[in-house]
Design a protein that fits this description.
Rossmann fold; alpha/beta; single chain
Length: 342
């Protein structure tokens, strides 16, 4: 196949390029060519801005377009309408943030979607999920019956410069007493970036359409943390601190505890986009994608690979300059919790 990737040099894109190349497909990348410009010297590169004009895309044809960089509906609509007669199929990378809320365990792809409040500007930092909903509509309108929408949950794995799940790997491998938030049985979900790439390659080859949650089967915070601990020889302990205690002391989910939210609908306040976690935030239904071929690699493999990648790319964790607790804040909260008989 000839495959056009809009983006391709960030976190998810390079893994997709490699997965497609491994199956013998020909890749074209279109982006502003500002990030990781050293990557993929062997592939065709078209330089341009999604905001337009898209002159570099004209006059060619592709079997499949993969859109990893669509955040503004007007940009997605422009690319989709421009390419409607130049490509057979359009794969759009959306998000599980598209939903109205996360109040219900077992949410499927037809759960009610979020709505951008009338008059609000298109600001992805404020309305990320709601704008992705509009982007999905733009793709379906331009490529009716010829589109695939993937909705990944938290994306983890080597190359994740957001350093979210990476925090838990690096912190655990550093050893000592780790603050573990909430209850050990709290559910959590993720998807490895390489599993996304493999699934998208499969969908590109089959071009059979559909909308898919890309989520690994739910696990618990305890299974995650003890699973990570099993990949290091460091001496590590976990102090489980009550979720209400954490909130009372200003320790916030998603911010100081990446990817974590208690399985409650009455916890805290919205973090962004007018939504927050809830009983269903770590229990999304991934059966549709699994039936279509999605496979989730083992936790231990991901933890080993993330630790190796981070050590090679960055070395030490700069305290206070990455997501998660600083060591001083972590020690303070543990001392406060133990002082009250936690």
């Amino acid at each position: 196949m000839r495959v056009l990737i809009l983006g391709g040099t960030g976190f998810i894109g390079p893994h997709m390029v490699r997965a497609l190349q491994a199956n013998g497909h020909e890749i074209t990348l279109f982006n502003r060519w500002r990030t990781n410009t050293h990557l993929f010297p062997e592939v065709e590169k078209l330089v341009g801005d999604r905001a337009g004009p898209l002159d570099a895309l004209r006059g060619q044809s592709w079997d499949v377009v993969i859109d990893n960089s669509g955040y503004y509906p007007e940009h997605v609509s422009l690319s989709a309408t421009t390419l409607a007669d130049q490509a057979e199929h359009y794969i759009f990378t959306s998000t599980t943030d598209v939903y109205r809320d996360y109040d219900t365990p077992g949410m499927t792809e037809d759960y009610p979607l979020g709505v951008l409040p009338e008059g609000e500007p298109h600001n992805p930092q404020r309305w990320y999920g709601q704008l992705k909903v509009i982007c999905e509509h733009a793709v379906r309108e331009a490529f009716p019956g010829r589109n695939t929408v993937i909705r990944p949950t938290w994306v983890i794995g080597p190359g994740d410069t957001n350093h979210l799940w990476t925090y838990w790997v690096v912190r655990t491998h550093a050893g000592g007493e780790v603050l573990a938030p909430g209850r050990p049985e709290n559910p959590i979900q993720w998807i490895d970036v390489r599993d996304i790439a493999d699934f998208v390659t499969m969908r590109a080859e089959r071009r059979d359409g559909g909308t898919f949650h890309l989520v690994a089967p739910p696990t618990s915070m305890a299974e995650m943390l003890y699973g990570i601990r099993a990949t290091t020889s460091a001496e590590v302990g976990f102090t489980w601190v009550d979720e209400d205690f954490l909130w009372q002391h200003g320790a916030r989910p998603w911010v100081e505890f990446p990817l974590w939210w208690p399985a409650r609908n009455d916890y805290g306040e919205p973090v962004f986009g007018g939504i927050k976690g809830g009983e269903g935030s770590g229990l999304l239904d991934g059966s549709h994608a699994r039936a279509a071929g999605l496979e989730a690699r083992p936790l231990a493999d991901i933890a080993f690979d993330v630790a190796e990648w981070y050590e090679e790319a960055f070395g030490d964790w700069p305290d206070g300059q990455r997501p998660g607790l600083t060591r001083a804040r972590e020690a303070e909260l543990i001392d406060l919790w133990m002082g009250r008989g936690g």
